[in-house]
Amino acid sequence: MNENTHNGRPSPSAESTALQSPSDHDLRVPCYCEENAWRVAYRHLNTDNTTNNNTSSGDNIDWKYFIVFISNNRKCCPMFMQRAISKDDTTDFVCWDYHVIVMRSTVQTNINNEDEKIVSEVLDIDTWITPYPTPLSQYLDDSFPHAADPNFNKQFLPLFYVVTAENFIRDFYSDRMHMFKNGNWISPPPEYPPIMNGLKIDEDRDGLTGSNLDAYISMSGGAKCVFTLAEMYERSKGLDGKEWTLGSTYVI
Predict the structure, then answer these.
(1) Calpha distance 101→79 (Å, rounded)
(2) Is the dihedral of CA 117, 123, 129, 131 positive or negative?
(3) Bond from prior residue into 188 cis (ω within 30 degrees of 0)
(4) 163 CB contacts (<8 Å, ≥6 apart)?
């Protein structure tokens, strides 16, 4: 837990606000998608599905949760249907340097207990796409319709870095200084304290290294499970039976 106090009393934390929220969408803070995803994942991992009013069913399905960082080597990734644009303007898009979503998957077996397939859904509280959660293939179609244009510059196609939600919740930390420029916040930060996982913030801001966000945004370096858009579509069929954190073929 992130322990913080205000006037001698414990301050709301990322964890407590995630659990106390009436819905996933009430957790949204614009422009802080990494923390939105952190809290959505935390909420689902720590709340029984039958009490969560943002699940696609009331069944006790054995979901596995993942965090997906969406970016590319140009750090310019066009996405449609984002809440940063008007809901009525379906022809406009926003170019994110990165975006972060929650994805979950489960093994689905037919009535004869044969032909298992992996079903995957996206939980993105920054999109207008419905239903919520959204089938992965639909989310890809609606978020990246431009990808089918043969004239589209492929340098701006998205890449997807997938990490287990448990590992992300355990390891991620950010002092939010990537959103603080020239003495001002680019966008108002969440009201709860930063997710630092026990690390202290450098109050002097000199040589600040209070974040590992860039390590997640980067699609290169280390043993990362990174997928191309085509690979995401292929995995969305759920026919190969592979875990999401295994078997990507993208060469970094």
Answers:
(1) 13
(2) positive
(3) no
(4) 66, 67, 68, 69, 216, 225, 245
Q: How far apart are CA 60 and CA 40, in angstroms?
A: 18
- Nearest Cα neighbor of 243 from 166, 163, 167, 132 is 163
Q: Are 95 and 83 in contact (CB under 8 A)?
A: no
**Residues 139-164 pLDDT 10s:** 999 999 999 999 999 999 999 999 99
DSSP states of 153-199 as a string?
-GGGS-EEEEEEHHHHHHH--B--GGGEETTEESSPPPSSPP--TTP
Asked if omega into 131 is within 30° of 0 (cis), the reply is yes
198: left (phi over 0), alpha (psi -120 to 50) or beta: left
Q: E strand or H helix at 135, and its extent?
A: strand 134-135
Model confidence at 55: pLDDT above 50: no
Spatial distance between the Cα atoms of 234 and 236, rounded to a whole number of angstroms: 5
Instruction: Report the candidate in 10, 9, 33 with the shortest Cα–Cα distance to residue 176.
Output: 33
Give the tokens for residue 90.
Answer: 């379906």
What angle do helix axes 136-143 and 229-236 make, rounded to 10 degrees? 150
What confidence category does residue 59 fall into, taking pLDDT thresholds of 50, 70 and 90?
Answer: low
Q: Residue 214, CB half-sphere, CA atoms under 13 Å: how many?
A: 7
Beta-carbon contacts of 109 under 8 Å, excluding residues fewer than 6 positions away, are 115, 116
* Share above pLDDT 70 across residues of the chain, in percent, rounded to a whole number: 83
The alpha carbon of 185 is separated from its chain's Cα centroid by a whole number of angstroms, namely: 22
Q: Which residues on neighbouring strands pair with residue 174, listed in sequence order? A: 211
Tell me what pLDDT residue 20 has.
Answer: 96
